[in-house]
């Protein structure tokens, strides 16, 4: 890939990144009771650093500059402990709390307002070059250590408990816990944020 194309992709990604920074910061501050400072969050959140770096590496990946994209994602992995493949598609206001040990595979698709805790894996169950990683709808929360594996769908507002192993679809607004994960709630009238308090297995 010519250097000019790579530089152009980087410039476009930098513009997009700047547009998302404040939105990402506000989303992170609203979800992390340990801080109420944008500055502290910007300087000390490895999860945000990983997400911001991913936005640049994904722009490189989609422009065809795949080796620079992989090198950048690996540098972010070394610096943050979070591994997001540059091919993964990430929505707006994505927040990774604590960060360490999170892995997001190449064909994963993540909606808006999704939150992952440390140790989460969005992994594959196939060695073929196909869609092999999960798709997460808007507003999904996944607890610490959970493994979500394969080309499955977690509907909007779904919650996955800490250390759960999920290999089947989770309906919208449902709560899934355990190994293998079982659906604990499917009542769409329940606010998923309240479910974090009602279901002990979701505590992280």
Automatic annotation (TrEMBL):
Keywords, in A-Z order: Acyltransferase, Amino-acid biosynthesis, Cysteine biosynthesis, Repeat, Transferase
Pfam families: Hexapep (PF00132), SATase_N (PF06426)
Pathway: Amino-acid biosynthesis; L-cysteine biosynthesis; L-cysteine from L-serine: step 1/2
InterPro entries assigned: Hexapep, Hexapep_transf_CS, LbH_SAT, Ser_AcTrfase_N, Ser_AcTrfase_N_sf, Ser_O-AcTrfase, Serine_acetyltransferase, Trimer_LpxA-like_sf
E.C. numbers: 2.3.1.30
Name of the top EC class for this enzyme: transferase
Catalytic activity: L-serine + acetyl-CoA = O-acetyl-L-serine + CoA
Domain Serine acetyltransferase N-terminal intervals: 6-51
Family, per entry: Belongs to the transferase hexapeptide repeat family.
Protein name: Serine acetyltransferase
Organism: Ornithinimicrobium kibberense
Gene designation per UniProt: epsC
